[in-house]
Amino acid sequence: MSQMVTNDTASAVLAEPTQTYDVVGGGGVRLHAAEWGNRRGRPILFLHGWSASHVCWAHQLEGPLAEDFRLVAFDNRGHGMSEKPLDPDSYRDSQMWADDLAAVIDQLGLDRPVLVAWSYGGFIVSDYIRAYGEDRVGAVNLVGAAVMMKPPTFDHIGPDFLANAPEASQPDLATNIAAIRRFLDVCTAEPLSPDDWSAALAWNMVVPPAVRGALISREIDSDDVLARMSLPVLVTHGRSDTIVLPSMSEHVLDVCRTARPSWYDGVGHMPFSEDQARFDRELTDLAGAVS
Q1: Can you give the pLDDT at residue 5?
Q2: DSSP 56
Q3: What span, in angstroms and rounded, lies between the C-alpha atoms of 91 and 96?
Q4: Is the pLDDT of residue 287 over 60?
Q5: How far apart (Å, rounded) are the C-alpha atoms in residues 67 and 53?
Q6: What is the rounded distance in angstroms from the CA atom of residue 99 to the CA atom of residue 102?
Q7: How many Å apart are CA 143 and CA 195, to the nearest integer?
Q8: What is the SS3 assignment for 141?
Q9: Residue 78 clears pLDDT 80, i.e. is over it
């Protein structure tokens, strides 16, 4: 029988942050950001994925990392507590995404943060570095991260994403609820705990289906950014990921000369939840090495 993925250090309900922010992002879109942890520590900035929320990082934000690091997370445009414009062009312009991340770094005064980018967050980090360079970043942790999206073949995007994302983007509520439930069931190699699963369902359903659809209407190739990266890049990926395939990270490792791998056997698309202890330890090492 499968064992549930559990976590003893934090609950799925995120504790109140030490501070919250309204950040003015690209095109004037209002972004919700918040922080936890040690304000005097090295900043770590968490970027969530498609149809998610900053709450996905709950175990990191109030776990052991909070003792040493300034932990900041924000909701992407269209997600969580951030503003949700319904115009598809608000999500198709790479400069908008770059401006969002730049605004969070600038307006919160983050000194060379470590960027932790899960899934769709890989696109956002690439958008930012293409537009603004890497001088204001200390290191990057790509976590099951996507760096290319090339319809109609969708190279390196997993079958369990392609099977569920279109219906999750439909306006009919019953249809997109069913699709998101299926999507959550295949995000991890073993089932999430009931609390974590229900929290994930809630943060997904806050995202308008039109936003989900707009996010996957982009055509993206980040090889130009990856090929010139000089920052340390930790590539974290579950070997059993069927949302973003391990071949995506193999591609990153081939193109980016500063990238090094961390493969998780028996883990799916959420290594930060499926093996929190190892994930936090490796992130601590990455952040600790930033000068």
Answers
A1: 44
A2: G
A3: 7
A4: yes
A5: 23
A6: 5
A7: 22
A8: strand
A9: yes
